[in-house]
Protein backbone atom coordinates (compact mmCIF):
# COMPACT_ATOMS: atom_id res chain seq x y z
CA UNK A 1 0.00 0.00 0.00
CA UNK A 2 0.98 3.61 -0.63
CA UNK A 3 0.52 5.41 2.67
CA UNK A 4 0.34 9.01 3.86
CA UNK A 5 1.07 9.74 7.52
CA UNK A 6 -0.73 12.65 9.20
CA UNK A 7 0.47 13.41 12.73
CA UNK A 8 1.80 16.56 14.37
CA UNK A 9 4.61 14.70 16.13
CA UNK A 10 7.58 14.39 13.76
CA UNK A 11 9.31 11.77 15.91
CA UNK A 12 6.25 9.53 15.86
CA UNK A 13 5.88 9.93 12.10
CA UNK A 14 9.53 9.03 11.60
CA UNK A 15 9.30 5.88 13.70
CA UNK A 16 6.09 4.78 12.03
CA UNK A 17 7.49 5.45 8.56
CA UNK A 18 10.53 3.29 9.33
CA UNK A 19 8.30 0.45 10.54
CA UNK A 20 6.06 0.58 7.47
CA UNK A 21 9.01 0.68 5.09
CA UNK A 22 10.50 -2.35 6.85
CA UNK A 23 7.25 -4.16 6.09
CA UNK A 24 7.56 -3.30 2.41
CA UNK A 25 4.99 -0.49 2.35
CA UNK A 26 5.61 2.83 0.66
CA UNK A 27 5.20 6.05 2.67
CA UNK A 28 4.52 8.57 -0.09
CA UNK A 29 4.13 11.67 2.11
CA UNK A 30 3.82 13.04 5.63
CA UNK A 31 1.66 15.84 7.02
CA UNK A 32 1.76 17.67 10.34
CA UNK A 33 -1.84 18.95 10.36
CA UNK A 34 -5.21 18.21 8.80
CA UNK A 35 -5.10 20.81 6.05
CA UNK A 36 -1.68 19.65 4.92
CA UNK A 37 -3.00 16.09 4.91
CA UNK A 38 -5.88 17.05 2.59
CA UNK A 39 -3.52 18.90 0.25
CA UNK A 40 -1.04 16.01 0.09
CA UNK A 41 -3.78 13.45 -0.50
CA UNK A 42 -4.80 15.51 -3.54
CA UNK A 43 -1.19 15.58 -4.72
CA UNK A 44 -0.01 12.03 -3.99
CA UNK A 45 -3.28 10.03 -4.10
CA UNK A 46 -2.25 7.44 -1.48
CA UNK A 47 -4.16 4.20 -0.94
CA UNK A 48 -4.34 4.83 2.80
CA UNK A 49 -4.04 7.75 5.20
CA UNK A 50 -3.09 7.05 8.82
CA UNK A 51 -4.64 10.05 10.53
CA UNK A 52 -4.13 11.46 14.01
CA UNK A 53 -7.03 13.40 15.57
CA UNK A 54 -5.53 16.21 17.62
CA UNK A 55 -3.61 18.37 15.17
CA UNK A 56 -3.37 22.15 14.65
CA UNK A 57 -5.41 24.16 12.10
CA UNK A 58 -7.66 21.26 11.13
CA UNK A 59 -8.13 18.15 13.26
CA UNK A 60 -8.08 14.65 11.87
CA UNK A 61 -11.83 14.12 11.95
CA UNK A 62 -12.52 17.22 9.86
CA UNK A 63 -9.67 16.29 7.50
CA UNK A 64 -11.18 12.82 7.13
CA UNK A 65 -14.55 14.32 6.15
CA UNK A 66 -12.88 16.54 3.57
CA UNK A 67 -10.84 13.71 2.09
CA UNK A 68 -13.75 11.27 1.89
CA UNK A 69 -16.04 13.89 0.34
CA UNK A 70 -13.52 14.76 -2.40
CA UNK A 71 -11.63 11.47 -2.80
CA UNK A 72 -13.90 8.67 -1.52
CA UNK A 73 -11.63 5.97 -2.90
CA UNK A 74 -8.89 6.94 -0.41
CA UNK A 75 -9.01 4.90 2.77
CA UNK A 76 -8.54 6.75 6.04
CA UNK A 77 -7.77 5.04 9.33
CA UNK A 78 -7.60 7.04 12.54
CA UNK A 79 -4.46 6.37 14.60
CA UNK A 80 -4.71 8.18 17.91
CA UNK A 81 -4.27 8.11 21.69
CA UNK A 82 -7.93 9.05 22.18
CA UNK A 83 -10.22 6.23 23.26
CA UNK A 84 -13.13 8.65 23.70
CA UNK A 85 -16.39 7.17 22.41
CA UNK A 86 -17.43 10.48 20.84
CA UNK A 87 -14.25 10.56 18.75
CA UNK A 88 -14.74 6.93 17.77
CA UNK A 89 -18.31 7.39 16.54
CA UNK A 90 -17.50 10.72 14.89
CA UNK A 91 -14.72 8.98 12.96
CA UNK A 92 -17.18 6.34 11.78
CA UNK A 93 -19.64 9.03 10.64
CA UNK A 94 -16.81 10.87 8.87
CA UNK A 95 -16.10 7.85 6.69
CA UNK A 96 -12.98 6.41 8.33
CA UNK A 97 -12.24 2.74 7.56
CA UNK A 98 -10.88 2.15 11.03
CA UNK A 99 -9.90 3.50 14.41
CA UNK A 100 -6.69 2.32 16.06
CA UNK A 101 -5.08 3.32 19.33
CA UNK A 102 -1.38 4.10 19.50
CA UNK A 103 -0.82 1.62 22.31
CA UNK A 104 -1.21 -1.29 19.87
CA UNK A 105 1.64 -3.74 19.62
CA UNK A 106 3.47 -3.79 16.29
CA UNK A 107 2.02 -7.26 15.62
CA UNK A 108 -1.56 -6.08 16.18
CA UNK A 109 -0.93 -2.98 14.11
CA UNK A 110 0.44 -5.04 11.24
CA UNK A 111 -2.50 -7.45 11.31
CA UNK A 112 -5.00 -4.59 11.23
CA UNK A 113 -3.19 -2.97 8.30
CA UNK A 114 -3.33 -6.22 6.35
CA UNK A 115 -7.05 -6.30 7.07
CA UNK A 116 -7.41 -2.79 5.64
CA UNK A 117 -5.65 -3.96 2.47
CA UNK A 118 -8.29 -6.72 2.20
CA UNK A 119 -11.08 -4.18 2.59
CA UNK A 120 -11.77 -4.87 6.25
CA UNK A 121 -12.35 -2.28 8.97
CA UNK A 122 -9.41 -1.72 11.32
CA UNK A 123 -10.48 -1.64 14.95
CA UNK A 124 -8.91 -2.53 18.27
CA UNK A 125 -10.71 -5.53 19.84
CA UNK A 126 -11.57 -3.43 22.90
CA UNK A 127 -13.12 -0.76 20.69
CA UNK A 128 -15.09 -3.34 18.73
CA UNK A 129 -16.59 -4.55 22.01
CA UNK A 130 -17.45 -0.98 22.96
CA UNK A 131 -19.22 -0.37 19.66
CA UNK A 132 -21.23 -3.56 20.08
CA UNK A 133 -22.25 -2.55 23.60
CA UNK A 134 -23.20 0.96 22.51
CA UNK A 135 -25.34 -0.28 19.64
CA UNK A 136 -26.95 -2.87 21.92
CA UNK A 137 -27.88 -0.14 24.40
CA UNK A 138 -29.19 2.06 21.61
CA UNK A 139 -31.27 -0.78 20.23
CA UNK A 140 -32.76 -1.48 23.64
CA UNK A 141 -33.53 2.22 24.15
CA UNK A 142 -35.28 2.53 20.78
CA UNK A 143 -37.22 -0.65 21.41
CA UNK A 144 -38.40 0.69 24.76
CA UNK A 145 -39.38 4.03 23.22
CA UNK A 146 -41.29 2.27 20.48
CA UNK A 147 -43.14 0.16 23.02
CA UNK A 148 -41.91 -3.05 21.45
CA UNK A 149 -41.44 -5.05 24.64
CA UNK A 150 -41.93 -8.67 23.55
CA UNK A 151 -44.81 -10.80 24.81
CA UNK A 152 -43.99 -13.75 27.02
CA UNK A 153 -44.81 -17.25 25.83
CA UNK A 154 -47.86 -17.37 28.12
CA UNK A 155 -49.08 -13.96 26.95
CA UNK A 156 -48.79 -15.14 23.35
CA UNK A 157 -50.89 -18.21 24.19
CA UNK A 158 -53.55 -16.04 25.80
CA UNK A 159 -53.56 -13.62 22.87
CA UNK A 160 -53.89 -16.47 20.36
CA UNK A 161 -56.97 -17.81 22.15
CA UNK A 162 -58.52 -14.37 22.63
CA UNK A 163 -58.05 -13.64 18.93
CA UNK A 164 -60.13 -16.74 18.15
CA UNK A 165 -63.03 -15.22 20.10
CA UNK A 166 -62.51 -17.24 23.25
CA UNK A 167 -63.84 -15.80 26.52
CA UNK A 168 -61.66 -15.32 29.58
CA UNK A 169 -63.36 -18.30 31.22
CA UNK A 170 -62.67 -20.51 28.20
CA UNK A 171 -59.05 -19.31 28.05
CA UNK A 172 -58.66 -20.14 31.74
CA UNK A 173 -60.00 -23.67 31.19
CA UNK A 174 -57.83 -24.24 28.12
CA UNK A 175 -54.62 -23.10 29.86
CA UNK A 176 -55.49 -24.46 33.32
CA UNK A 177 -55.20 -21.04 34.97
CA UNK A 178 -57.67 -18.79 36.80
CA UNK A 179 -59.83 -16.15 35.13
CA UNK A 180 -58.04 -13.53 37.24
CA UNK A 181 -54.74 -14.68 35.77
CA UNK A 182 -56.17 -14.41 32.26
CA UNK A 183 -57.30 -10.86 33.04
CA UNK A 184 -53.82 -10.06 34.36
CA UNK A 185 -52.21 -11.37 31.16
CA UNK A 186 -54.64 -9.41 28.98
CA UNK A 187 -53.84 -6.22 30.87
CA UNK A 188 -50.12 -6.76 30.22
CA UNK A 189 -50.74 -7.59 26.55
CA UNK A 190 -52.73 -4.43 25.94
CA UNK A 191 -50.15 -2.34 27.80
CA UNK A 192 -47.16 -3.77 25.92
CA UNK A 193 -48.81 -3.44 22.52
CA UNK A 194 -50.39 -0.05 23.25
CA UNK A 195 -53.85 -1.38 22.41
CA UNK A 196 -57.19 -0.40 23.95
CA UNK A 197 -59.32 -3.54 23.88
CA UNK A 198 -59.68 -7.21 22.92
CA UNK A 199 -60.84 -6.36 19.41
CA UNK A 200 -57.64 -4.44 18.69
CA UNK A 201 -55.65 -7.27 20.27
CA UNK A 202 -57.35 -9.80 17.96
CA UNK A 203 -56.61 -7.64 14.92
CA UNK A 204 -52.97 -7.36 16.00
CA UNK A 205 -52.70 -11.16 16.39
CA UNK A 206 -54.01 -11.75 12.86
CA UNK A 207 -51.88 -8.97 11.37
CA UNK A 208 -48.65 -10.19 13.01
CA UNK A 209 -49.27 -13.84 12.21
CA UNK A 210 -49.76 -14.88 15.85
CA UNK A 211 -52.95 -16.52 14.66
CA UNK A 212 -53.71 -17.42 11.08
CA UNK A 213 -57.06 -16.45 9.57
CA UNK A 214 -57.90 -20.13 8.95
CA UNK A 215 -57.52 -21.07 12.64
CATH topology call of the largest domain: Rossmann fold
Largest sheet entry = 6 strands, parallel
Which parts are unreliable, with pLDDT below 50 for 5 consecutive residues or more? none
Query: What is the N-to-C succession of helices and strands?
Result: EHEHEHEHEHEHHHHH
- Helix vs. strand class: alpha/beta
As a whole number of angstroms, the C-alpha radius of gyration is 28 Å
Tell me what the CATH architecture of the largest domain is: 3-Layer(aba) Sandwich
Count of individual domains: 2
Alpha-carbon distance between the two ends: 63 Å
**Total beta strands:** 6
Q: Tally the helices: what do you get?
A: 10
* Oligomer designation: single chain
Strand order of the largest sheet: 2-1-3-4-5-6
- What's the CATH superfamily of the largest domain, by name? Response regulator
User: Regarding CATH, which class of the largest domain?
Assistant: Alpha Beta
Query: What is the averaged pLDDT score?
Result: 87
Instruction: Kindly state the percentage of residues in helix.
Output: 55-70%
Task: Give the percentage of residues in beta strands.
Answer: 5-15%
Amino acid sequence: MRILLADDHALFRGGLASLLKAWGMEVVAEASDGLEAVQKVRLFRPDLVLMDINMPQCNGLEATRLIKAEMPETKVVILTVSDDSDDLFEAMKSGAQGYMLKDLSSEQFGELLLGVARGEAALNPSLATRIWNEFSKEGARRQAEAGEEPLTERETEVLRLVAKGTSNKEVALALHISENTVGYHMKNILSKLHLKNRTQAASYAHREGIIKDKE
